[in-house]
Amino acid sequence: MQIAKSSDWKIISMPSQRTTLPLQKVYTKSEFEQITAGLIPECMEDKWFIYYENPWLYLHRSWTGFCIYQVRFETIKEDPIATEAILNRDPSQWKETNDRKDLLLLETLLDSRADCNIAQKLQDWIAIKEN
Hints:
With 131 residues, the chain is an alpha+beta fold. It is built from three helices and five strands; from the N terminus they run E-H-E-E-E-E-H-H. It has a domain at 6-95. Strand 4 and strand 5 (79-88) form a beta hairpin. Helix 2 runs antiparallel to helix 3 (119-130).
């Protein structure tokens, strides 16, 4: 498995228009390793470029390079925990303004990298989108 690095893709830093929200998502060590290995897009359908620089995981849109999410991880009692999320709020880069919906998408992205079941999170995200 190739480990993604910031130099593997064209990236643009998180803008000053942002919001920071607390997280409390615990992963196993194996799941954490899968998440922090990142993701290098291989085709047009791959919408995210993801890489990890301790303690932050960066999630960029692959087409634009815009940083949409940053997630801080801490190790507490040997468990890797996502403890904080920074969300892009620059309307020229990211249109989402609903924190709950954005966090659900972020958790879905993290859980999919960890090979966790994401069906319920996707249903919850769709339900918010329809309202």
